[in-house]
Fold these 2 entries.
Entry 1:
Amino acid sequence: MDHKARKERKRPVRLCRIGVLLATACWVIGPAEPAAAGQVSVPRYKWIVERDVDIPMRDGARLKADVFRPESPEQFPIIMDMTAYQKDLLWVPPSDLEEKASPSMNWETGNPEWWCPRGYILIRVDSRGTGKSPGFAEPWLKQEVIDFYDAIEWAGVQPWSNGNVGLLGISYMAMNQWWVASLQPPHLKAIIPWEGAADLYRDAAYHGGIFNDFMQTWYLNLMFNHLHGPAQSYNPDALSLNWIWGVMRNRLDTSFYDGVRAEWDRIVVPMYSVGNWSHTMLHLRGNTEAFVRAASMNKKLRIHSGTHYHPFYSDEGKADQLRFFDQWLKGIDTGIMSEPAVKACVRTDANSCEWRYNRQWPFDNTQWTRFYLGSPGAGAASVPGALTGSAPAAEGVSTYASQGAYRGAPSPPGVSFVTDALPEDMEVIGPVNLVMWVSSTTDDMHIFATVRNIGPDGREVTYSPITPGSTRVPAAVGWLKVSHRKLDPTLSTPFRPYHSHDEEQRLKPGEVVKVEVEVWPTGTVFKKGHRIRLDIRPTGPGYRFFAAESLRSETNSIYTGGDRASYLMLPVIPRAVERTSR
């Protein structure tokens, strides 16, 4: 080999060959030195894939899995996913993804072409009744969690396993991590739930007691992909469970959701919880609740901005994943656990953010700041009320039409409250609580609360959507069905209400009640000269299905000032001396 060739060998090169027995062998030519303390694993292994491997379940069922592993007699740690999205379906990523397209890409899972050369085994399992796994599917229900436990324990004792299993994946592949971790499988040693709801009821199915239309759309898409794709030829009846009926039928937090709600006192495995400010329709709440409430003594929280998958496949995102798994699955001191436990990228403008670090969530230097609602006064229904630092002395009221009058309307009117132009930048990082006194002329009301960043030109600053081309998101959102206003006093805090959702407390027409609306966390800089606006609406996009308490044009009211001071509590962070840019 000449000098030029030796020089080029320093850069890893991927080669593959198709083998027999459904196996593909691949390898990376590159650095062969092992990782030392403070470093991370480097590409150094050939790898193979074994397709449609049987994994036995305790009830005799056998699930199908693909096993991607280094071609070596050594034993390696395992990264596992259990998916209902079919392990065999190729995902072709967008051209701007840092992780480039390859034949091994699969939706929301790690790429074996990146992980296996670094000394990891990747296992993708079709959940029961999906893809090539026989049986009847029960997605996001208890049987799937039990199956996941059995798959982890099977993997942990295979001859190529070092006994350490980690879980990694986005969304579906993050949600079931919380639930199986609650069962404490002995071989599970670390989890990275990347944008994963943890409570099927509160985080996904019902927001503040209001049904989330995403659930219906998601389940119909899942059925379509099986019944109109390859799976229909060998498992056409697997998704016959009327799952969406079960979700709609159980509009309170009943035993239907047992097993798909994280049991935080039982989650003791090292965890890296990863959220996304933009994922306010499904996942963000689960990731922050996890960091605060899980019993694990070794836990970290990361919150970024961007689409649902770009950060996961970015070089920076994969570096965090690798450092955490090297630490807990290989025993390499990567230094990640010596760094601040919380890493949050605060949105400084519409398209960029800067990293902030803290030892806890909410941040230990948070200044909990109340902005009181002030009604605009009689005859000024179309004029925004005020958001001010002191409560109005006199009581006021703002009235708007209830949800029954706007069935199907995309953007029904409501009421708004806005600050004066800010005299300096205001950095807001953490959970938000909206405390209000309300009434309705009917027996219930829906509250859709949106916190918006309004620029000097009167236009809203919006942020990266979850999927490219979809609607950009506001600073923060929250919801509450007022009949679900009952709080759990043991879990509620002044800055994050926790609703029990175990009974409906219907209103008497005209009855004034106090409510606390959980507004999901935000990480936003409201710049000097901008205004913070709070919109209250009777419904909103993404919630087409709601039970109209009356088909007549009823009215809702919000009370402000005097003995009924309503306020928005924001987590304001003092300006720091040092900033780290993204």
Note: The CA atoms of residues 413 and 537 lie 6 Å apart.
Entry 2:
Amino acid sequence: MNGAEAVVNFLMQKGVDVAFGYPGGPVLVLYEAIYKLKFNHILVRHEQGAAHAAEGYAKVTGRPGVIIATSGPGATNLVTGLADAMLDSVPLFAITGAVARKDTGRDAFQEADITGITEPITKASYLIMDEKKLLSIMEEAWQLTTEGRPGPVLINIPKDILALEMPSEQTPLRPFRRVEPELKKSKDSIAEVISMLKAAKQPLLLIGGGCVISPEAPASLEAFLKQAPIPTAATTMGIGTLKRDHPACLGFAGMHGSLQANEALDQCDLLLAVGCRFSDRVVGNPKKYNSNTARKIIHCDIDPSEINKNVQVDLAIEDDAAHFFKALSAAFRKAEEEDKADLEEWLQVIRPWSDRLRETKAKMQQVITRDYFKPQVPLLPEYVLSEIAARYKGRDPIVVTDVGQHQMFTAQYFPIESPRSFLTSGGLGTMGFGLPASVGAAFAAEGRPVVAIVGDGGVQMVIQELGTIDANRLPIHIFIFDNATLGMVRQWQSLFFNEHYSQSELNNNPDFVKIAEAYKIPALNVETPEDLTQALDRMQATEGPFLCRVFIRTEENVYPMVPAGKNSDEVMMPGMDG
């Protein structure tokens, strides 16, 4: 077989059931192999769409999402998706074509140093110049995507290697080994963790994306919380690890997190953080947060480079979230066997703290229900999301968002029923993520509903992916929240820039319904509560994709809000604007 057939054969042997990509000159021989070997490939309408679609697939399945692109602009169009995947720990396997080896470095047509460009935003980026190492490098790269903290890799293959007959024997690579300072593992730290927990009166468990990524972490977490019902908050990427109605769940913490979660983050005397990286959207001012010397911090993460990077901790543990929670559960069982009364006494100590946070949660829910869930015109996003969520309750939907106000409203008001079911761009905050990510999610959904909630700004960056959705008749239910503005930009301009709405108004939005219909996707405008009811009825009675353009009140802001560079003790609520 030639190099291209070897690549496709490699993917099939790895069990890859779908790849997302776009052809071009240097990869035509690869697309010939895709045709001959009947490999399942989805033609997107833009390479960035391929990257986000692969992210959506990987986020749902936990398996690497595969991307194929040509050289030059085809490869550079992947950059945003790769950077997004790197920050959110998404396993991607990107294959790009390159100019022939004899032309490399000569500014040949459509040549770009994608290897150099992507080195900072991938776990590894390879340029293959020796055909004898093709499969060995692909094997190493494949392992890297999911080893430790998952992430993207890129393999750049010159077109002459793709066309060459492959040697039957490949040159093996030296085993890949990362040299890093050793940190304590769970088994070496649990006694100290138990000791610190028992000394705490106001503990908080903070769970991040690592608790979603680790397959057994959600079940292990629930088992631990049955033994020790510690108040638990999530980061945005940790949403879905714990069901919202779980007694210990406080919602998500951070810039637009719940009042009770942020109150706990501010006032806890012990913070046990697992699988999170303390981003600036969770702790805006790390120096101030660390100034509370009475607060102890335990940080467990599979990536040692994240520990002590933003927040200085008292106990560092390098481990997978599931391993940690299993070890902690075992230690609590042992502690209960040895001295059940002592453990019960500690649980009684933290109960008033837990009750106080639950009371805050209940009061906040009453305010929300009273003020925001009323049917009115213009529609409020809180009301719309509650109505949408009610239609999918119990069906375990995969909820995909773009970036902006609608993203935070969705995180607040759409209950996520299982892990790997809330797909969003966290670290990079990529507008345009939502629509193509829903494409990948639909291929991974296995019959579950896929709900895409996107903004009128972000959707216009990738609106051509409606063509991908139509071509494959993907049953994605798309809601475009149209407030005729870049909502989050407008909110910041309203609060911090004297209402100077510089370049944030979208008063000339196109007719999204007509655009959808041009792609043969049924669509409706939604302006009133009655429109919303009718649209949801029709959407759920229609096979295949459906789009709703929902007109939202322009002035509606997302609250609570912790301003940038501030911590959760400086939260803003309505009436505190400016």
Note: The chain has a mean pLDDT of 95.
